[in-house]
Design brief:
This protein is mainly alpha-helical. The protein is built from eight helices and five strands, in the order ααβααββααααββ. β4 and β5 form a beta hairpin. α2 packs across α4, α5 packs antiparallel against α6 and α5 crosses α8. The two termini are 18 Å apart.
Length: 206
């Protein structure tokens, strides 16, 4: 288990997330409840309360986690499963914007030129990929909410077709997790809260 947590943390760090933030996020994702208090995080990670507080503040600012109060009025920090769906939607929108920009260049460079043809091919490719990402994300969204007792091989055949769920506006965490998933992992600089983040791993390496 510890080896897996270290691997997960390393992948998040390689995608631009600082080490402590990566450790906290990994800890939350690998606990059954999907939520922990600050004191529980301190105990599990063996770090200072100040380190946890700083990590929590950052992760909340990126919409990667949220806080709620439990029945004992303790603040619990919770991972938002839907952020993975929002990540895919953010990827599709990023593709659409890039495709539009490429297609705009076709008119500027002049139809029939090699450069214009190259840009048109890029636009067509990104349109196709973006449309399929959106369609797949909508169809698979409910998978993110499948309960543990429904994940056995026998139950998967009886759950029926996936249903679509109304979309909501992607948060900042969606942009970051796009990097984690490797959709834009081609060495291109992205920004997380104004800080350049260079991706060093491609999809196959993740």
């Amino acid at each position: 288990m510890r080896e897996y947590e270290e691997t997960f943390t390393t992948v998040l760090m390689a995608s631009g997330l600082p080490k402590m933030m990566s450790r906290v996020l990994t800890c939350l994702y690998t606990t059954d409840a999907g939520s922990l208090t600050a004191s529980e995080l301190v105990q599990r990670l063996q770090v200072s309360p100040a380190s946890i507080s700083k990590a929590i503040t950052f992760l909340q600012s990126q919409d990667l986690i949220r806080r709620e109060r439990d029945e004992r009025r303790r603040e619990r920090y919770i991972v938002d499963d839907d952020v993975w769906y929002q990540t895919m939607i953010a990827s599709a929108r990023s593709n659409a914007q890039l495709a539009e920009t490429a297609r705009h260049g076709v008119g500027i460079l002049g139809p029939g030129t090699p450069a214009a043809a190259r840009l048109e091919n890029i636009a067509r490719f990104l349109d196709f990929v973006g449309e399929n990402i959106t369609r797949a994300a909508e169809q698979a969204r409910e998978v993110l909410y499948t309960k543990a007792e429904a994940t056995s091989p026998s139950s998967s055949a009886t759950r029926g077709p996936l249903r679509t769920t109304p979309a909501r506006t992607p948060g900042k965490g969606s942009t970051f997790l796009t990097e984690v998933l490797g959709h834009t992992a081609t060495g291109v600089c992205r920004f997380v809260r104004g800080t350049p983040v260079r991706i060093r791993h491609r999809v196959a390496e993740l």
